[in-house]
Amino acid sequence: AGPGRRLPALPSGAASKWDIREKVWEHLEASGLAEFPRPVRGRIPNFKGSLQACCSLRELDVFSRAREVKVDPDKPLEGARLAALQARKTLLVPTPRLRTGLFNRIVPPPGASKEMLRRCATSQGVKEHSLPVGLDGKAQVDLVIVGSVAVSEKGWRIGKGEGYADMEYAMMVSMGAVQEDTPVVTIVHDCQVLDIAEELLDDHDLTVDYILTPTRTIQTNCKRPKPQGIMWHKVSSEMLGKIPILKTLRSREKQAGKDVTLQDEHPALANTNRATLSNKKVMAANPQPGAAPASAAVGQSHVESNPVHPRLEGADTNPTVFVGNLPGSLRVSELKSALRELQVIPVRLNWQGAQHRAFLEYRDKGAADRALSSLQGLSLGGNTLRVELAKSHRN
């Protein structure tokens, strides 16, 4: 099987998406399989053998038949972008975080040498040799190639937790660029193929039809339907502001008579449980069996001192949310990523990782209340967070 092939088993039934991500990132680093850019944590990880795995694409019928191929911009997929260019296919690469549109079409210079095609497949080459493809670019994607942090032989996929691959796919459905039977391929190391419980999947999660590793080609025969378009009730106004092309798609769908009510425009959803409201990309709430409800568990968490931060007390006028029971291994970037995912970004974040806590300052009470309800029951790195209004504990 070779070194690093097998990932240490996760406890059955207890693993959240975030637990699985952490385990994969940790294993790739510890086993020496991780490649530049490092650390791989927080990324679609690059791995030893990625080029070899990408080369297996050429043996796939779905690749041979495809004329237009969409490949994500991640480093481990560089070989897939190169294979598409060498086979003279139209190569579409999503713009990073969808800031400036949906795709760039890679256009190598006329008579490009092998070396030039190699450059065009890199992230720098994508910037230098591409043309933007708008909503009216009439893209007809025959094959979708995505990166993954983990994937199961059944085709269940876990990304890095930001939801861009799912959003890109949903947008392609909305603009008619993919059909129900457009195949999806992911390329990973063998140790990233593991069992994933189906209950971790949400209805917006993209599944895959083929998995390529350095040693295997797996056809998943996955029957679970792929996302049928953008689920507007899971999109926030903030996300709409960050992704300009979403606004255009939304106005088109509105004109076509579709319900495009956003997540924060649903009065009935305002107090819904966080797990159903958020898109659960970051990590599923994973309280231990038999744990007390969140409100009762507050006093049981270990926080080293009073939850009111002395410097914030009396000095600030903004409502502040206290977040405790943070795992020692957690980074501030991971907490920020979770807050972004749940669309509850504070105006100021006071990080006290050594004390396993943080303070989130919000503009007004409404924003703080939204953060409180969204963060209740949230599990990060295996710890269920303790969340409460800091000021309510001054007495």
UniProtKB/TrEMBL annotation:
<dbReference type="InterPro" id="IPR002698">
    <property type="entry name" value="FTHF_cligase"/>
</dbReference>
<feature type="region of interest" description="Disordered">
    <location>
        <begin position="287"/>
        <end position="316"/>
    </location>
</feature>
<dbReference type="GO" id="GO:0003723">
    <property type="term" value="F:RNA binding"/>
</dbReference>
<dbReference type="InterPro" id="IPR037171">
    <property type="entry name" value="NagB/RpiA_transferase-like"/>
</dbReference>
<dbReference type="InterPro" id="IPR035979">
    <property type="entry name" value="RBD_domain_sf"/>
</dbReference>
<dbReference type="InterPro" id="IPR034359">
    <property type="entry name" value="MTHFSD_RRM"/>
</dbReference>
<dbReference type="Pfam" id="PF00076">
    <property type="entry name" value="RRM_1"/>
</dbReference>
<dbReference type="InterPro" id="IPR012677">
    <property type="entry name" value="Nucleotide-bd_a/b_plait_sf"/>
</dbReference>
<keyword id="KW-0694">RNA-binding</keyword>
<dbReference type="Pfam" id="PF01812">
    <property type="entry name" value="5-FTHF_cyc-lig"/>
</dbReference>
<dbReference type="InterPro" id="IPR000504">
    <property type="entry name" value="RRM_dom"/>
</dbReference>
<dbReference type="InterPro" id="IPR024185">
    <property type="entry name" value="FTHF_cligase-like_sf"/>
</dbReference>
<protein>
    <recommendedName>
        <fullName>Methenyltetrahydrofolate synthase domain-containing protein</fullName>
    </recommendedName>
</protein>
<feature type="domain" description="RRM">
    <location>
        <begin position="319"/>
        <end position="392"/>
    </location>
</feature>
<dbReference type="GO" id="GO:0005737">
    <property type="term" value="C:cytoplasm"/>
</dbReference>
